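REQUEST ID: PR-0412
SUBMITTED BY: lab tech R.K.
PRIORITY: routine
TASK: structure prediction, single protein chain
INPUT:
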Amino acid sequence: MTKDTSSNLSPDDLPSYSESISFPSASSGFLPQNLATARTTLISSLLTQNISPHLHTTTLSGLSSSTLLVIPSNVSSLQPPSDNGSKDVSGQENALPGETIVGFPSAENLSLIRLRGLENSLEFWRQPAVIHELEEQLRTQLRREGHHVIGDEMENPKAGPTGAKSTGFFRKKAPSAEWKTPTVEPLGNGEIRTGVALMDVSLRIENEMGLYETRTGKAVVVKVDVGG
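STATUS: complete
OUTPUT:
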């Protein structure tokens, strides 16, 4: 028979309630680590699944410049009227039939990326830390591929209340609502210039009545120029 030794324990030998149930302390960085991990994972997914393949396809087509409009999942004003929550346009690049991107120079090589999922909401992508990390991850990836990435620290004077900073590619042309690419130095072979900013962008969309209307909403604009 097993001898019961519990009666030999004094009250001083028993663990306290606070010792029995422990939680990460406020100084452990538990919540900030979760935040940083989620941010890095979502941005890496966008780069791997959308941005990098698009850039490689663009250069294989002989084009040296590309501008991507990344539309967060809950910016309903920039979703096609026929979407109705369908997943058929998830990751759709280029405007759908009946859509036209307006407000950018006609010479721009423009493409759309429509994101899906609650994790890709505007509330996530409008955070300045997210915009900053997106460009940093993009620049890091391009460096790893052997490119010389040129920095450009010019701020967008019309960044608005989000606090997002433009990296020099984007400048509001007053008094119109168009965005233009400032004149920059030509790039040498192997050089790349990048820019990432959260902006108001506009689409001319054909609605269910067959009429065209212009809709505006927030999108993450990613621009890449390749020298060669």
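NOTES: The first strand starts at residue 65 and ends at 71.
REVIEWED BY: pending
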